[in-house]
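Is magnesium ion placement plausible here? Inputs below.
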Amino acid sequence: MLPPAPAILPASDAAIAEAARLVASGQPVAMPTETVYGLAADATNAAAVARIYEAKGRPGFNPLIVHVADLAAAKLIGEFDDAALALAKAHWPGPLTLVVPHRADSGIAAIVTAGLPTIALRVPAHPAMQALLAATGKPLAAPSANASGKISATRAEHVTASLGARIALIIDGGPCVRGLESTIVAATGGPLRLLRRGPIEIDAAEDMRGIEAPGQLESHYAPGKPLRLDATEADPSEYHIGFGAIPGDDSLSPTGDLVEAAARLFDLLHKADAAPHPKIAVAPIPGEGLAAAIRDRLKRAAAPR
Ligand code: TXA
Ligand code: MG
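Reply from A.M.:
I modeled the complex. Tokens:
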């Protein structure tokens, strides 16, 4: 017998009420955000958070991002210095995660931070995720809604394909407008450090030390087949993902628009993964900022495992 499929409900008041009921009962729910789909659970309930790790098959040492409704809610959980406050005010709600010192009295389950003295906080802009935060009144721990190490989900169908019957409910908010996970910046005293490139460009030195952002494993966002970068031409055995002047089998953006390319990246990786071709090739994505964030994801998708 096939396992039961998760319910997929278009975002609506009734759907959010059902999601809130599941969250209150300790279940994770897949939610759209402006970056990628997240698998959200009550961050104050250790068993609920453990179910996230279980559904994703994620290594237990990997800390999660906690989503809150606004800066006031974030300040109850983390300590914000002037630099952190300035960034929060400039970019929240939006695709920026701030790693700040964790307050001892936050009420966040220890499993969320995986033993780190810091915590990753984000105020999402997506109305469905904001509605769930309001309906539950809880901070929500939410990693990307994909099996650990696999391609992130930017559509409800991707979540079904990756996590399927391991979760009870997916709220379908359509394709994610940003399509790349949030930029992560650490503001823990001393100079700001960029832990993960993302939709927001931050003027800070990059610091990808594994212990600080243990989710940044070399092989990540992994399709099920080899992926070749900077491919101006492709072999018939390769599904070619194009960009700009290079059309490919399908294109991240025929006009070379980086915002469009970021929003389509994971969708095209899923499509390439499902294509009959045994390999994938991706056209060069030149440029800085968002282009560098896209190249970072592609480099990890191409890493040997
Ligand atoms: O856009 C996003 O950020 C999405 C949506 C759902 O919000 N979430 C997301 O979560 O990408 P996840 O779990 O796939 O990635 C979170 C990253 C991981 O690399 C993790 O190691 C890092 O954040 N992280 C979490 N807490 C941290 C901390 N205290 N210090 C350093 N890195 C941390
Ligand atoms: Mg992820």
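Short version: The chain is about 30% helix and 20% strand.
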